[in-house]
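A favour, since you know our structure tokens better than I do. Just paste the record in under my message, thanks.
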Amino acid sequence: MTMVQRRILYAGEMSGISNTRHRIAALRRLGHAVIEFDMTPYLTAGSRLARQIRYRLQRGRSAERCNQDLRLAVEHVRPDIVWADKAVLVRRETVAALRTAGRRVVHYNPDNPFGPRRDGCWGAFLTALPEYDVHIVPRPSNLEEYRRAGAREVRLMPFGYEPTVHFPPPAGWSDRDRPFAVSFIGAPYDDRAPFIDALRVEYGINVHVHSGAWPARWRSRLGASHHPSTYGSGYRETIWKSRICLSFVTRSNVDTLARRTFEIAGCGGFLLAQRTGDHMKSFEEGREALFFDDVRDCAGLIHRFMHDEEARSLIAAAGRCRAEMSGYGNDARLAAVLEGL
């Protein structure tokens, strides 16, 4: 089926560490005309205290200006669709005004306003939630939660990878090019820090953690295995340089899939992910990826495959093929969810 080409005003955080630009790039590859409305200046304006208050209360001059400027931008651009990406500052009256003006207003939220993590930034969004035409969410649990909160329509779009960023290493890449035996890229949500510490203390496995978000006490325990956060090409190359890449779901967000799972596969990395039903539906265990249940299970798989480059290469290649053939990239994910909008 041929997709109708749309004029889309995309409102979201456009900072260098955001995945927003990945989705914009995919929409453009699909043939849509995308006009960007960057929310970063409104989210980051002022002192640290001002930002914290704005994050918690979604109030203040920057929040007011964000809503005013968004309405002006939509009036000027006259898009078919307004796509709001985790628009925590956008108020109910703003969304209602855009719909009254005849715009189709869509909201994508990679995070979970109903989860136990209690991020503290959802007041304005939850009030505005019923006004959006369509909500797009990455986790099945949100479908009914959004409906109970008054959503008109909710569509599921699982996490994916960005093919222009997450692609395999050059031909001939081998363990000689992999200085990291085991890597984890990400924040210490849930019990990840004690899990990785237990791998070191109990099983002699030093996991290289690439993230600036880990507290000092855990960084000190990691020692030389702690590395700064990495993004873009550096993120991809960290996966390339790792024999084994760990992926955890964020249970405090009620996730059953991890975005990093698909990015590792997209980069041709050897994926060792936390076992969930949705992970196992996405990749065939033992052929396209490996899954662990607990620290002991994870350690056993690491010891088994650490020095078996041939087996890892076959599994990594099959995982990459599955990701591409099954449409786990952003283009296919977005094309599916935009059908009929």
User: Anything to note?
Assistant: The chain has a mean pLDDT of 95. The first helix runs from residue 20 to 29.
